[in-house]
Write a structure and sequence with these properties.
mainly alpha; Receptor-associated Protein; 82% helix; flat
């Protein structure tokens, strides 16, 4: 009898769960109607994704964040240089900064990781406030590096288009469309120049905006050269060809500089990682032999 009680309890529990499942499950016709409604109207009415809800929450936090005019100008420029040009990018960045800072403060102030420490929590608060700016600067630097690497190919195509008889505006448009697959960042910037020119902005202002949006020194020099060429009426094709040669010389010099720095940069991993192993291999046997010979001699003298 005592052995039958657990078996009966198991059977009773299983029957209870099955009965509850059947009671809570919708009828077959209701399930079919619900599925048909999803297939018919589900494409028009979609639930709001969780990611969009998070973005909306960050925007609400960023709208309430205190701001200064100087900081907003520099951050907006940095966001544009990183490729974020939408009006809500600045508000979203402030929201991410505040949320990340408060999240780190709550993490270190609670006992989830270590013992709560207010000093560490305040340090996490400061780190969370500074770290998004560092990440943004890193993203802007990587994007500027990609644009810098694509300038040589862009100049070659631009020289060919201008020498073929196209004007500078049409040449920029054609080159931007041709570079869309290989260099999307530079193609996007050239497309923005064409949109600004169509909107009625002067060419010099549109080119200066290009230099400000990218933050690349070589592109700023190219913009200055194009503005001076347009101002003084000199040959655009000849100026572009000369600047292309100058740019390739600068790229070769940068490569030589990076190669010259390689030896100095390799010293630290050699000393930290490889030198201890070599020291153990070369000095280890001699040290073991020295210990095995010297210690018995010292004990015998005693």
């Amino acid at each position: 009898m005592t052995l039958m009680l657990p078996l009966l309890a198991f059977v009773f529990g299983t029957a209870l769960v099955i009965a509850a499942a059947y009671a809570l499950a919708p009828a077959r016709s209701v399930a079919i109607d619900r599925r048909m409604d999803e297939l018919t109207f589900g494409r028009d009415v979609e639930e709001k994704p969780r990611f969009e809800r998070i973005i909306a929450s960050l925007k609400r936090i960023g709208e309430k964040a205190p701001r200064s005019a100087k900081e907003m100008g520099s951050l907006r420029l940095r966001l544009v240089q990183a490729g974020y040009r939408r009006d809500e990018a600045l508000t979203l960045f402030f929201g991410m900064r505040i949320a990340f800072a408060l999240g780190l403060y709550a993490l270190f102030a609670s006992s989830l990781i270590t013992k709560p420490n207010i000093i560490v929590a305040l340090g996490g608060l400061g780190l969370g406030y500074v770290l998004p700016g560092m990440v943004l600067a890193r993203l802007a630097k990587k994007r500027a590096h990609r644009i810098r690497l694509s300038l040589a190919d862009m100049l070659d195509l631009l020289v060919v288009r201008v020498e073929a008889g196209l004007g500078l505006d049409q040449a920029l448009q054609r080159v931007g469309s041709e570079l869309e697959f290989a260099y999307p960042e530079l193609s996007d910037e050239l497309r923005l120049i064409n949109l600004e020119l169509r909107a009625g902005k002067p060419r010099s202002e549109a080119l200066r905006n290009l230099a400000d949006r990218t933050g690349v020194d070589d592109l700023s020099a190219l913009v200055t050269m194009l503005i001076q060429t347009d101002k003084f009426g000199t040959s655009v094709a000849q100026s572009l060809r000369v600047y292309s040669e100058t740019l390739r010389t600068k790229r070769r010099q940068r490569a030589d500089e990076a190669a010259a720095k390689t030896g100095v940069k390799m010293v630290f991993p050699l000393v930290v990682c490889i030198f201890p192993a070599i020291w153990v291999i070369t000095i280890g046997p001699a040290a073991i032999k020295f210990i095995t010979v010297l210690f018995p001699m010292v004990e015998n003298t005693r």
